Amino acid sequence: MISQSDIKRICSLKNNKGRREHNQFLIEGYRLVKTYLEGQAEMVSVYYTKSFKQHHKSFISLFKSLEYDPVLINEKLMSKISDTVTPSGIIGICKTIKTPVPNFSAPSWLYLYRLSDPGNIGSLLRTAAWFNIRNIAFSPYSIDPFNPKVVRSAMGAHIHLEIHKNVDFELFQQNNYLTLGADQHGKNVIDQFEPTHKWVIVLGGEVYGIQQDIKKKLNQIFSVPRTGYGESLNVAAAGAILMSQLSKK
């Protein structure tokens, strides 16, 4: 059984205010809920439809790890609490992943400066997890990393990362990081670059990039050399290439 107050709370998780108030976020879809359950994320409730149960009978065995019974709801209610146009039939509610104090002794960081596109951010988080860049910082005025669209795009990467919000760029300077930016007018020498100590990749927003006063403070600015056609790469593609190159150093 699901109460009206529960419905209201779940719907509120689609916006920043609701997520902050309840310290929870919404995950949706077969693969994502499975990933979070297997990753032992703190999932406080699960809701699914009869149709989902019929098509994923083996999946129900995963529910045995829960300390509560998942709630069966009808399709109409699933559409109401879902954040997608075509609901998959299963939703999980997780406690927001707590992160410790930023570890400024870590060898590598990814700093996302005023990024706003959920798809790009989710892709960057997946890539960071892939290359074991576990420390992620979002600048003030960035999108919430627990936005449902970001969470879906990241495909479970949140479990493996330490994500920090509202982090000022200057903290990396104060903690003696090599600050490495990406810009289409930067130097095409990433393959020749050998970091001498701990570093942070700084990626700017999709429209305006890195703010000029921050760009001036960067130790290095790289770009990805073009060998074919195209005006530019989006931030997720450029960031993936830089992370791949730097993770080999």
Q: Which structural traits does this protein have?
A:
four-stranded mixed β-sheet; six-stranded parallel β-sheet; methyltransferase; 10 strands; elongated; alpha/beta; 249 residues; 2 domains; 60s Ribosomal Protein L30, Chain: A; Alpha/beta knot
What's the total number of strands?
Answer: 10
- Binned strand content: 15-25%
**CATH class division of the largest domain:** Alpha Beta
Count of structural domains: 2
* Backbone structural class: alpha/beta
Task: Show unreliable segments.
Answer: none
Main beta-sheet strand count, sense and barrel state: 6 strands, parallel
Mean pLDDT: 92
Query: Radius of gyration over alpha carbons?
Result: 20 Å
What CATH architecture of the largest domain would you give?
3-Layer(aba) Sandwich
* Envelope shape: elongated
Classified in CATH, the superfamily of the largest domain is: SPOUT methyltransferase, trefoil knot domain
CATH T-level topology of the largest domain: Alpha/beta knot
Helicity range? 25-40%
First and last CA, distance = 54 Å
Kindly report the spatial arrangement of strands forming the biggest sheet. 7-6-5-9-8-10
What would your notes on this structure say?
It is a single chain. The protein has 249 residues and is an alpha/beta fold. It folds into 2 domains: 4-95, 60s Ribosomal Protein L30, Chain: A; 108-247, 3-Layer(aba) Sandwich (Alpha/beta knot). It is 32% helix and 20% strand. It is built from 10 helices and 10 strands. It has helices at 4-12, 16-22, 30-38, 50-55, 75-81, 118-130, 148-154, 170-174, 212-215, 235-247; strands at 24-28, 43-48, 71-72, 90-95, 108-113, 135-138, 162-164, 178-187, 199-204, 220-222. It has a 6-stranded parallel sheet with strand order 7-6-5-9-8-10, with helices on one face. It has a 4-stranded mixed sheet with strand order 1-4-2-3. β5, α6 (118-130) and β6 (135-138) form a beta-alpha-beta unit. α6 (118-130) runs parallel beside α7 (148-154). The radius of gyration is 20 Å and the shape is elongated.
